[in-house]
Amino acid sequence: MRVVLNPKRRKEYSLARIMIKLRGDIVFEDPQSRIREYCEIEIHHGYDDKHNINNLISEDDIRAANELYAMINVYDKNESKRLLSCSQSISALLSAVSNIDLYAVSDKDWPKLRSNIKALFTEFLSIKGFGLAKATKILHLKRPNLFPILDSFIIKFILDCNISDLGKSSQIEIGARAICLFH
């Protein structure tokens, strides 16, 4: 299934009734509500109970992200050092976004927030070894209501593309596009 939403028609689509039909004639009516319901009750212990809503990236954040398979330092032992060395610039960018529910952002405020989100993605993805999945696993800890986790499985499901085949600039655009679907 591939869903491509024109940002100019976002409101029209958000009012439309969307259904997903799976194999075996399983139908999910209003899948967005089902996902929200799941997110309200599902807590990944060791990760979702480690939200640290501030502007500083810490070793604790890295450990918590690795509980959800961020794999920071698995292939390159210096990834966390590189992330922490960028902490000041990330902190400044994080201070520009609050932990607001993504779907509650007004159309008036959306362009500025989207720009700030892209700036955060750009900063994270400028770090060697970091892609969209690692970035959003950290950002979700810092702003859980604003940043969904966008790993390869989620991106494949909502945008039908293989993020591992994409360069960093394309991952930034895909991440921004994916977040638009939640707005």
Descriptive overview:
With 183 residues, the protein is mainly alpha-helical. The chain has one domain (43-182). It has nine helices and two strands, in the order αββαααααααα. The chain has helices spanning 10-15, 31-41, 59-67, 79-85, 87-94, 110-125, 132-142, 152-159, 168-182; strands at 19-22, 26-29. Strands 1-2 form a two-stranded antiparallel sheet. A hairpin with a 3-residue loop joins strand 1 (19-22) and strand 2. The longest helix is centred in the middle third of the chain and has 16 residues, at 110-125. The protein starts with 9 loop residues before the first helix and ends with a helix.
Query: Roughly how many Å is the radius of gyration?
Result: 16 Å
Report the biggest beta sheet as strand number plus sense, adding barrel if it closes. Answer: 2 strands, antiparallel
Name the poorly predicted regions.
Answer: 1-15
Number of beta strands: 2
Q: Name the overall outline.
A: globular
Span of the ends, CA to CA: 20 Å
List the secondary-structure elements in sequence, H or E: HEEHHHHHHHH
Strand content: under 5%
Structural class of the helices, strands and pairings? mainly alpha
As a percent range, the share of helical residues equals 40-55%
Quaternary state reads single chain
| Average pLDDT over all residues | 85
Output the strand order for the largest sheet.
Answer: 1-2
Provide the domain count: 1
Please tally the helical runs, counting DSSP H or I stretches of 4 or more residues: 9
List the keywords.
disordered N terminus; 2 strands; mainly alpha; 9 helices; 183 residues
